[in-house]
């Protein structure tokens, strides 16, 4: 079947299309009702279906004779540890830990917060919750105590699972003091905290703390419990414009169906393939494509406790691909910019046999063409830039490698995934023609796997996503389709700047700036200007060994932007920085930098990698007389 016919079928008759995809999932009770409305008038998928996500990830494959196949490979260059779990051994670990949770009284609908590093026990904890119908909420290990407390108060968990520490490069981060502080700050009081002791930094235990090993050793394994399709599998918090994080809810049935479809249609993998998503279980990529989707599909998944650089060098990704014979690799473009900065000539790639690799997928933020072309030349495999969100849970636009691979275009997320009717709308809700940039929206109903609500606050869900363009889900991103139907995501809609009446995309300027041979990474932000309304400012991280003065570089970039966009872009300022402020998942904090330049108050997001860099950025803005800070 061609992509065009598959896509059109998903829009013309979504109930029949998804009824076909239901056949991929081993249900306890296969749904007869595909798409319906609940009592509140909300779209619901597979209302009468019953299943268990832990069964689908583990027991099903053991029953099908795949018990001795590797399910999970843990590779930790920071502890020099590698460990392999088969589907059978991982099932047994999960069943026993689930039994221990049941012994604590944890059951269907109860919430469990998981605050863990990238270790197998984090995956075991997630699948154990799924096994007994508890709703897990994974919080990125190392989050500040205040942010952990906020999530505890929102989810109101009955138990918290943690480890004594995490490891960032050579630094050991004690988790237990952060957990203890969060428990003190939170209004909701957790009765039990289960702590996995790691030798790098053992934790002091309190009266209500339970040792992980002792906690599970006397438990009896338990079987998966049947759950309704609509029962929540997990809550995952994402940043909110109000400062309070939004708890994205994921249901069991829609999630399983969508992820099973995606592994075939988008990623083009089969049972037995080795799939590696180099992310963290604290993010949506980790949930979907480290833990659930690869195991659902009978693949071997890689759990990597390391970084693209300095663990031990910029060849760490290549080493893992070669050593574990990875077939499909997925990570954020920011990781490759870090690798390219340290190894611009790709010398370390030549040390490894990467012949197992079929496809590279990138997502998380837009892949600039410079990085895209470097990856194509370096790896000689298809490089697929695809686009999705925490809220969607799986790709919205991609090259459909398992249906009909398309020719890739630099800077594009390729074409809409079947099930997602993407439209580009103007501010007054009109569909815009190809080439014209506007709000990227998805016509309702959303396909299975997308968030059905925000935890505990459905009004917040509708206000945040469904109000701005009635009848559509508002993604918050801006972009356009080209004449060939390829989607270009140009960044958040509030990253569009207005320079003397011209609406300009900072993403387009970043493409041009990043094309300069000296630039390893960049961000372009719009700052307030008394004459022009806004003007663009570039922040630049240079490649190691770049030999050019800042003044010369700025002049060359001004010329490039003038040639690529025009003089009206008013790109006249570029500043060299040591690094860019980012979240731990690699997203550049453009809005925060813009607020700094504009002299506006802001709250650093809980996900920020290093808050100190914001002070450095502020001082640079003052010294370079950027924005309103230039008046100080």
Would you give an account of this structure?
By secondary structure, this protein is of the alpha/beta class. It has a domain at 500-631: ANL, C-terminal domain (GMP Synthetase, Chain A, domain 3), CATH 3.30.300.30. The protein has a seven-stranded mixed sheet, sandwiched between helices. Strand 29 (519-529) and strand 30 form a beta hairpin. The chain is globular. The model has no long low-confidence stretch (mean pLDDT 94).
What is the strand and helix layout of this fold?
Layout (H helix, E strand, L loop, with lengths): L2 H10 L1 H9 L12 E3 L5 E3 L4 E2 L1 H11 L6 E7 L4 E6 H17 L7 E5 L4 H13 L2 E4 L6 H11 L3 E5 L1 E4 L2 E4 L1 H10 L6 E5 L12 E3 H6 L9 E2 L3 E7 L7 E6 H14 L8 E4 L6 H13 L3 E5 L11 H9 L3 E4 L1 H10 L16 E4 L6 H11 L3 E3 L11 E2 L16 E2 L5 E4 L12 E6 L14 H8 L6 E10 L5 E6 L3 E4 L2 E4 H9 L4 E11 L3 E10 L7 H15 L8 E4 L13 H8 L14 H12 L9
